[in-house]
Specification:
Elements: E1 2-8, E2 12-20, E3 26-35, H1 43-57, E4 65-70, H2 81-95, E5 101-104, E6 110-111, H3 113-118, H4 127-138, E7 142-147, E8 152-158, E9 161-162, H5 169-174, E10 178-179, H6 188-191, E11 194-197, E12 200-203, H7 212-218, H8 239-248, H9 259-287, E13 296-300, H10 304-313, E14 319-322, H11 323-333, H12 335-347
Parallel strand pairs: 1-4, 4-5, 7-13, 13-14
Antiparallel strand pairs: 1-2, 2-3, 5-6, 7-8, 8-9, 8-10, 11-12
């Protein structure tokens, strides 16, 4: 049985194709990642990319099942999340006319198009429950920290299932289960209000001058190859170009702000990101009446090591596992798409 999982994000399309044997063991795993900012590109391009990605991940054939999750509905290219969900669901169905498509919901139900159209918000931002389910199969009691390019998920898992207090983005933000800070796309002025320059506080410009991708490249956390999103000024991703963007957040440039001071701004932004994630972990643990030092944490995503693990270590936690260790390198490469495929492939007979 060949299953393709698709995760349609606001900035990236992730895909994963797996073959499941009778025991439900995934084999012949293929994955893909395409940078696709939906607010800048024509939607017909997205439908074409969905079709091509599905064909490629099906070993140039037709899959038995397609499982699609999304977060792109939040993009302001859509007037409402309802409109976004309906547009993406219908577009995918049109792009894949010969494929059986299911949409995992936030409650881990598998919905068909007619059910999605009747209740669009039930599948809005529903990539995290399938990932939590997949992790929970291997580590039944843990807290999953998934640091992507844009956001960080803090997902408590008990008895193999997510036990999040929030079901949508707003309530997840309230409960500390979603933090809008990530490894690449976060505006530096959204991370910091002030920085210290020579020991004196300096307010930041609120212009879109630099992102967390610049921060982490300057600090050596990522390479140019891992900096897969667009830059704030449309220029390149060399060390010097990242330094130049960071200098602008204090209304300077590489001639007026010394390199060591710019690097210090990057360090302060990183420290603030770590503190924001740590506070969210503490909030989730408090609701669970759990002490971080007694929890097992699973870290995932592009920022797993330099944001996820570092933040977890600051809570005093002792048990930290990497998603590569839990799912294997292939499964963790496009983890949400892999999880969408695995969940649907194993569960679909109960729903269809």
């Amino acid at each position: 049985m060949r299953v393709v999982g698709l995760d349609v994000g606001g900035a990236n399309l992730k895909g994963c194709g797996i073959s499941l044997d009778e025991s439900g063991t995934p084999q012949d795993i293929l994955y893909s990642l395409n940078h696709f900012p939906v607010w800048l590109r024509d939607r017909t391009e997205l439908w074409s990319l969905l079709s091509q990605t599905t064909y490629t991940l099906s070993n140039n054939g037709k899959p038995d099942l397609v499982s699609l999750v999304m977060t792109a509905e939040l993009s302001d290219t859509f007037a409402t999340k309802r409109e976004g969900v309906v547009s993406i669901a219908r577009g995918a169905t049109t792009a894949l006319p010969d494929s059986r498509i299911v949409f995992p919901s936030v409650d881990l139900n598998l919905l068909q198009l007619s059910e999605v159209l009747a209740s669009p918000l039930s599948v809005a931002a529903a990539n995290w429950p399938v990932l939590a389910w997949t992790v929970g199969r291997e580590v039944p009691d843990c807290i999953l920290i998934d640091v992507g390019s844009t956001t960080t998920d803090v997902i408590p898992i008990r008895d193999g299932l997510p036990v999040a207090a929030g079901k949508d983005d707003t309530t997840r933000l309230i409960h500390g289960e979603l933090v809008y800070t990530g490894a690449l796309r976060t505006d530096v002025s959204a991370i910091l209000r002030t920085v210290l320059i020579d020991g004196r506080p300096c307010r930041l410009s609120s212009e879109y001058f630099a992102t967390s991708g610049d921060v982490h490249l300057v600090l050596g956390h990522i390479t140019e190859g891992l900096y897969t999103t667009d830059t704030a000024d449309g220029r390149g991703k060399t060390q010097q170009e990242c330094l130049a963007r960071l200098a602008r957040v204090v209304c300077g440039d590489i001639e007026t702000v010394e390199e060591n001071r710019i690097a210090d701004i990057a360090e302060q932004a990183w420290e603030q990101q770590l503190d924001d994630i740590r506070q969210a972990i503490d909030q989730v643990c408090k609701r669970l009446s759990a002490a971080p030092r007694n929890e097992t944490f699973v870290i995932a995503g592009l920022g797993a090591q330099f944001l996820g693990k570092e933040a977890v270590n600051r809570t005093g936690a002792k048990a930290v596992r990497d998603l590569d260790e839990v799912l294997g390198a292939e499964g963790s490469a496009a983890a949400t798409a892999y999880s969408a495929a695995l969940y649907a492939g194993i569960k679909w007979r109960h729903y269809l």
